[in-house]
Structures are given as structure tokens and as C-alpha cells.
């Protein structure tokens, strides 16, 4: 009888461990799928990068970004987001286009806004000291959803690094 109980416990433990392993494999697969569908980095020429930025900025022709750099190179809102009117369309994603001229690399990122509600992770878009940290903007995701699709930021530094953010 003791042997029967021991076998039952072994099956329970083995089954639980098997489920945990399957859950870890599923989580890893979901992570790979997410990255493959939301992040894209490729080497490209500066002229192709310029065309990509022009195409991304075209829907916002004549609009100023929501944020600009002040004299100390700190991002600040042009007009407080709370003072902006509500939009008729709710955006679903934050799009980022970043160009690193030294590595001739163009990075495209599309982050679902629902994901940004969960955690505020540090996101370094270009890297090293000359990059752009998305958290510098201190974005209010609820306000961005309220105002609708918008050009958020168009950053360029003296090294040629450029970062464009918008919601869509």
C-alpha cells in the first residue's frame, strides 16, 4: 500500500514538472514570436534610411512632435498632453524608427500600447552614450491613447543618430 502511494506521488511530481517545462517552452516560443514580429533591425544606406523616415513622417506632415528637446537636451512636451483634445481613433501601437549612422543600422520597433501599461522597462534605442533612451520622455500611455494617433518625437543628434516615435 505504501508503494502505491509513493508511485502516485511520483506521478504527480513528474506531471507537475512536465507541465512547468511545457509552460517554459511555450513562454520562450511566445517571446521569440513577439520579437520576430515587432522588432526589425537591418543594415541599410543613409539614403534608404532617409526615405524610411520620410515615409513614416508623411502622415504627420505639418505637425510638430508632441515632445521637443529643451536647451539642456531634456525632452519636454510642446503642449501638456492633458491640454490636447481627445482623438476620434484610439491608437494601438507605439512605433519607433531609429537610425545609427556608424553601424548603418535601421531599427523598426512596434510595441502594442497595452504592453506598455504593464511595465516601464528601460528601452535604449541606439545604444552607448549617444543613443536615445525612450524612458527620457516619461510617456503617459493613457494620454497617448486618449489623444489618438500622433507624432510623438523626432530626435536627431550631432552624430547623425535619428529616432522617430509615433502612435498609430
Low-pLDDT parts are none
Total number of beta strands: 7
Q: Could you say which structural class the secondary elements and strand pairing correspond to?
A: alpha+beta
SSE sequence, one letter per element: HEHEEEEHHEE
Main sheet?
5 strands, antiparallel
Give the N-terminus to C-terminus distance in angstroms.
65 Å
Strand content: 15-25%
Query: Kindly state the mean pLDDT as a whole number?
Result: 87
Q: Round the Cα radius of gyration to an integer and report it.
A: 22 Å
User: Which shape, going by the Cα principal axes?
Assistant: elongated
Task: Count structural domains.
Answer: 2
Q: Strand order, main sheet: write it out.
A: 1-5-4-7-6
Count of helices? Answer: 4
Helix proportion range: 25-40%
Can you give a write-up of this model?
This protein is α+β, with helices and mostly antiparallel strands. It has helices at 2-38, 46-57, 113-118, 141-147, and strands at residues 39-43, 67-69, 75-77, 93-100, 105-112, 151-156, 162-167. The chain has two domains: 1-40; 44-167, no CATH class. It contains four helices and seven strands, in the order H-E-H-E-E-E-E-H-H-E-E. The strands form two sheets. It has a five-stranded antiparallel sheet with strand order 1-5-4-7-6. Strands 2-3 form a two-stranded antiparallel sheet. The protein is elongated and about 80 Å long.
Amino acid at each position: 500500500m505504501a508503494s502505491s502511494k509513493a508511485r502516485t506521488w511520483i506521478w504527480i511530481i513528474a506531471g507537475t514538472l512536465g507541465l512547468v517545462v511545457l509552460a517554459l517552452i511555450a513562454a520562450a516560443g511566445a517571446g521569440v514570436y513577439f520579437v520576430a514580429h515587432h522588432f526589425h533591425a537591418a543594415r541599410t544606406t543613409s539614403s534608404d534610411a532617409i526615405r524610411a523616415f520620410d515615409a513614416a513622417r508623411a502622415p504627420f506632415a505639418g505637425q510638430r512632435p508632441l515632445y521637443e528637446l529643451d536647451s539642456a537636451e531634456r525632452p519636454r512636451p510642446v503642449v501638456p498632453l492633458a491640454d490636447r483634445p481627445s482623438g476620434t481613433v484610439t491608437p494601438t501601437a507605439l512605433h519607433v524608427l531609429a537610425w545609427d549612422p556608424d553601424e548603418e543600422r535601421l531599427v523598426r520597433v512596434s510595441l502594442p500600447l497595452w504592453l506598455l501599461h504593464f511595465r516601464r522597462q528601460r528601452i535604449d534605442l541606439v545604444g552607448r552614450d549617444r543613443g536615445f533612451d525612450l524612458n527620457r520622455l516619461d510617456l503617459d500611455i493613457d494620454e497617448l491613447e486618449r489623444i489618438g494617433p500622433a507624432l510623438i518625437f523626432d530626435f536627431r543628434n550631432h552624430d547623425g543618430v535619428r529616432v522617430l516615435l509615433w502612435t498609430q
